[in-house]
Amino acid sequence: MTIGEKILKYRKQAGLSQEELADKMNVTRQSISLWETDQTVPSLDNLIMLAELFNISLDELCGTSAKSADEAQSLTPEKPDCLVCAQTKYSVDLIKYINRLSSKNFYITSIFAVILSIFLGISIIISDVNSVYLIIVIFVVIIFLALIIRVSLSLKKRTAELFKLRPNCVAKVKLFQNYFDLEVSSDNTYSQSTIQYSEVKKVINSDKCILIYYGNFVVPIEKNLPDTNYDLIFKLLNVSGENAGTTQNRKIKILLLTAFIISLSSIFMALITTAISRQFSPLPEFQYTFPEHMWVFFIFVPLPLASAVLGIVFYIKKYKCKKNIIAGFIMCALLMIYGSFTFAFTDKTAHDFGYVRQLEQIISLELPDSGYISRAKNTDSTTKSVAMIKFDNADEIYSIVSTDGRFSDDTDFIPLNFINAYYVSITSGYDYFMLFDATDNEVEVAQQHRYIFLAYNKNKNILFVLDFVK
To answer: What pTM value is reported for the model?
Structure first.
């Protein structure tokens, strides 16, 4: 029976899992697995510790009549020659540098989202969209800024805790053909483990150090030792591991990260494009017509969908890309939901210029014959319709409004709180106003009067019309 088979046997007899034994030995679970499958052999210190844990003699564990530790050591097969080794002493500056590199993708993504949000906010201001959307953008910016600050403070806290728990911490790395040994020691702790290159998730080769990511750990190899072949270290880690950061794998990871960022930003791009679409539309714009342009969201569905498909393809190939799949499908759903608002609200607005002819008859005012109109119907129980009309001939409508005695350049003639405060705020910068009592023109519900409120903006060439009952 081999040493590995005996370790497996005595571990099961002791009722220990690989994780539990690893914790007692202060090594990784992978090291226990490698010992039990005879891929590597425990060091002499670990053999002695195993014998003590299993309450057996070193002779029983090694299966010989060894009477001394030196004889037991002779039973341990010699490891192949170490190809290259390095040693790193942890410092505050090194830990901060590692944290910056490790959080680089997060910071880039967050800053990119903040920039997009600010750009979206500017677009909303320029497009004169309802302030609710601007508040949402400001909220998103605050959230991302808070996340950046929180992560930065968390990294500083972790750095302080590390030096408190492990003073004078030193990491020693010995690289072999298919694996590397790691020893981490400090004033009050020590751990030793063997890591296969296939367990390495990624490798970052910066100007200051090489970072090896495996499991939930990161091992730095600082580039400060003379006569150390750091190119060989990076080559060993890259060539031997399945997902250890080869050139092709790095390109794939960059592709997945780019797709993920684009997927998250697709909804911002859709909002910006919607705002631009409204800006260049000849139709007068106000809050009720915003959903008419939201079909634009469907155009951006392929972006998160492509990210999700890429995520599925490379997840099958054992890449860590769940975020692409999850974010991709969530963004697809949101884009389609928002895009469907165009069809859900299609009967809420109208652009029939014939309404102007009806308005002429009601208020006995001759208006220009051509232009564009946006009208919302039955917005609430007291509002029959809200319309914004932009006439082709600005001079003609201005001449009509400015010479009609029923229009005033001030709203003092309107009773206090007579008109909805929201519509008063919309027309606060307008130049001419009229409040027409249209009750006599048709039979109204008892105790209710019908009014037509008109406001004209000379600079924008917009006639605002509010048809309501009071």
So the answer is: 0.49
